[in-house]
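batch job 7 of whatever, protein = YVTN family beta-propeller protein
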Amino acid sequence: MPGRPGWAVLLVLLLACQPRKEEGPRAPPPVAAPAPVTVTKAEVSVSFELQEGAEGTARFVLKDPRTGAPVRGARLLAWMDARPEGQPAPDEAACRARIKTYLGGLLAARADVDLNSFLLLTLNHDHTLSVIDPQLSFQRTKLRNLVSLGGAAGDWALRPDGGALYVTQPTHGSVSVVDTRRFVVQRNVRVGRAPGRLALAPDGRTLWVDNEGDGTVSVLDTTTQAVLGTLEVGEGPKAFAFGEGGRTAWLSSSRSEELVAVDVASREELGRVTVGPGTRALAYSEVARALYVVREQANEVLVVDGSRREVVHRLPVAPGPGALRFEPSGRWAFVLYPRGDRVDILDTASNRVAHSLTGFSAPDQVTFTSSFAYVRNTGDARVSLIELASLEKSGTPSVVQITMGQKKPTLARELGRSPAIAVLPEGNSVLVAGTADRALYLYSEGMMAPRGTHLNYGREPRAVLVLDRSLREVEPGVYAAQARPRKNGPHDVHVLLDSPRTPVCLTWTVSGVPEDAASAGTAPLVLEPGFEPSRLLTAGQRTSLRFRLTPAAHVKDQRPLVPEELQVMLFRPPSGHWLERPVPRRVEDGVFEIDVSPPEPGQYVLLVGAESRGATLGTLRDFKLGVQAAPTLRHVSEVQP
């Protein structure tokens, strides 16, 4: 096996495909159980449960063959390609070259199955949510979707499995549930008045919503999206923390003098702790088994014993403390001063302020990788990196200043309350929302400047999230990602293992796909325009366009498509600054209609896809639409002889 790593890891891959459930009354009926597909090879065991047209989960199991122990914390990338008929398996040189090509991100060299993809999500000032694919361009724009939220957003939270995104709508008194496969608002759940901050329980089963307008907290079931109950907490903005392995929720209100402890499973109140008014932030340390409370009015941090539910320490701090967060180990707590120039770092081992750092400019947020704390400054365009390993050393911790963009965040319309820095899947890179610059900055640790910039197409990104669809460890030694193999025959699987950086090339012989589909090798859907693509549209006028979208003859699943399955995008290249997501209407089986209204003359691109049927945007043919200026109305005296 070419490229076999010297430390001899036994690699086992299991691919289990399950039909994705659709929401709503027009969901397609369930598909019959899949037929198993198995493959064997020396040192590799592979099995597929392959279901036509359905997405599945690829599972890589890494074991040390000498001990049988799982290999934990590994970093790996993987791609899968159907091998052309008669072509031999790649040798080690070809394997390395192919992986290098994939790492280059060339559109012409995309793998049949890419197990490393991720998307960037931004929460924008214009009540929209941008979905950016940093690895793929549609006519030179990376803007994949634009979701209209229908109102100003308060906060957002991504379910741990990445299946749903929740956004509060303060003016509507609701939480919008965004489907992260189709990127549409699936439903709006009514909660209390002026919902703001969100907190997901660690197990991802419940979502806790701060209803700032009525002093309550609503608890939502993230499976059914139903409100399970409403808790009385107190007037003013709330803060949340989860402790004891996620079993206990701690709630506070800025105007209440009490903290409320709630059982997460039953939502029953467990007790209250009197701390005084002015609670600004909460954070729980599993290491210290204690809750840390920032009281802004009293300029102190309280330490509450989690089991006894009583205040055991009071730590005086500088005036104006704000955010409080623990780094990944749970030992060091960071206290930020959004109206000042400092960051205090508390040591839970001694319950004292171990470090007081200055030189910041109105710091309001902190995000962590395994090596650094990233502090956003709102008074200038810097992000301050504090080395976590240096916290245990004597002297001042190491701080590096990185300039992200040109404009300070306070020049934006609004800062927003959600994190503006997100960690990328590789773990040593982050994405920073340049709110006032209307851009996203990609930074990798060890560099003195951002290594890349993504435009946000004229919108201010108030917050940023990474929707990770790449391989990640889901249990010890098991790494999983979504996959969809479509063809029979030998497949080359290219795996890149890190530490040491070693390519591994495998051969899988896939069988079980219906032969007519495997031999056809064509797109799963047929797209036919019901309009003349060369026809000129008129700027500013709404035009209806029809098209036919049907399953290809070789596809086993011939169910008619429904509008909820479709994704439609109209944008103007090259920048994609203007983008519209028309909502399709069903005219008859297989025939759909959309309304488009391009605002200015020029060339536009129309894309149609149905991800649930294996046709993502860009897979099917696109249409170039020309748009002419609206005719100028002339005064009657100008046309009289």
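notes: Residues 1-9, 15-54, 514-521, 635-641 have pLDDT under 50 and may be disordered.
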